[in-house]
Design goal:
By secondary structure, the chain is an alpha/beta fold. The chain has 15 helices and 18 strands. It has two domains: 290 residues, Queuine tRNA-ribosyltransferase-like (TIM Barrel), CATH 3.20.20.105; 93 residues, no CATH class. Helices cover 40% and strands 19% of the residues.
Length: 400
């Protein structure tokens, strides 16, 4: 039996189906809704665990595929597991390697993202990119390492073995993440394979035992019937929670999430994989998502794209060189309390390492605080007013 427990504390009024709650894990509680920081290689780039904690982050998600390649799951285990190895004492989560099926497969060197705008041109071929570094068959996926060209094979069983050894609190079943440009026929084929892999992952997870929780992954692309079919199928399995993955069109994220969460069991948490744009956080929460993860806040921060209540700015722009004010006067993060836009502009223009750290602290705090405020407004009232005011102000201006 897993060491995770989920309790719902407050439900939103209909037509919203969102809720607040608490996920209890062996390494601490996660108050939901919550934004989970991405620490792909057991590190949130440029930040120490203490800096991460100061932003209000409650949990970190790491990547099974990358930790398997380097340093290797046995090294992580020898250190005492992911939390001890990384110096992060709080709750942890690992994805399965399923996203790399997409990023190193059909999306590799194509400029395709998992979230796109309609209408989408379909890929002509099912698997025609000869340069791809991931090749799927019924049993699993063959990966070619981008580091040294070595070949590695992931199956549902192997992904579970690696994740158990890495030792995160919450694991994710191995799945095939498709491209939004894959034809419907391939979406159907991949979905059936994902369901078979889900069952194999669950069986191996139960065989390995322990306190770790396992989430099944709902797929189905942009198609309502496939998404609902996937939710019904996985709801019949003994997963501790559910992740919502795969490809979406930008306009349909909230709708697609609702299709799924109207079906998934209410008493188990739901995680939206790889989504972190402010409007999508509101849409996800209103439609029943409990946790999110996304690299966007820190990845964009490292390039100089910084979040403010009035929209995203590019701190490299000339106008900020002599602005001796915080990035966002309403932000309570360490960066905004100590430094100015002019200083950040200087750091980025000078290519100083500190730029990435200070920008990441700010962006991460901005998103975490946004989700924390949403949770508070759901519990105490005034959610709709907060949502409408925030979105009107944030999307009225952007200089990025």
């Amino acid at each position: 039996m897993s060491g995770m427990r989920f309790t719902i504390t407050k439900r939103m009024a209909l037509p919203c189906i969102g809720r607040t709650g608490v996920i209890q894990t062996p390494h601490g509680d996660i108050r939901t809704p919550a934004f989970i920081a991405v620490g792909t290689k057991a590190t949130v780039k440029a930040l120490t665990p203490e800096q991460i904690g100061a932003t209000g982050v409650q949990a970190i998600l790491s990547n099974t595929y990358h930790l398997y390649l380097e340093p290797g799951e046995r090294i992580v285990a020898a250190a005492g597991g992911l939390s001890k190895f990384s110096g992060w004492g709080g709750p942890t989560m690992t994805d399965s390697g399923g996203f790399q099926v997409f990023s190193l497969g059909s999306a590799y060197k194509r400029g395709v993202t998992k979230v796109a705008r309609d209408p989408l041109p379909e890929l002509v071929e099912e698997s025609g990119n000869s340069n791809r570094l991931a090749r799927v068959d019924e049993d699993g996926v063959e990966f070619i390492s981008s580091k040294d060209g070595s070949i590695h094979r992931f199956t549902p069983e192997r992904s579970m073995e690696i994740q158990h050894v890495i030792g995160a609190d919450i694991l994710v079943a191995f799945d095939e993440c498709t491209s939004p440009q894959d034809p419907r026929a391939y979406q159907e084929k991949a979905l059936e394979r994902t369901h078979r892999w889900a069952l194999r992952s669950l069986q191996k997870h139960q065989e390995l035992g322990g306190e770790q929780a396992l989430y099944g992954v709902v797929q189905g692309g942009k198609y309502q019937d496939l998404r609902e079919y996937s939710a019904r199928t996985l709801a019949g399995y003994e997963f501790d929670g559910f992740a919502i993955g795969g490809s979406f069109t930008k306009e349909d994220i909230g709708t697609a999430v609702r299709w799924v969460n109207n079906i998934l069991p209410e008493d188990r948490p739901r995680h939206l994989l790889g989504i972190g744009e402010p409007v999508d956080l509101f849409l996800g929460i209103e439609n029943g998502v409990d946790t999110f993860d996304c690299v966007a806040p820190t990845r964009q921060g490292r390039t100089g794209a910084l979040y403010t209540r009035s929209g995203r700015i590019n701190i490299r722009n000339a106008r900020f060189v002599s602005e001796f004010v915080p990035i966002d006067a309403e932000c309570d993060c360490y960066t905004c309390r100590r430094f100015t836009r002019a200083y950040l502009a200087h750091l980025f223009r000078s290519e100083e390492m500190l730029a990435a750290t200070l920008a990441s602290i700010h962006n991460l705090r901005f998103v975490v605080r946004l989700v924390d405020t949403i949770r508070e407004r759901i519990e105490t009232g005034g959610y709709e007013e907060f949502r409408d005011a925030f979105l009107a102000r944030y999307y009225s201006y952007s200089s990025a």
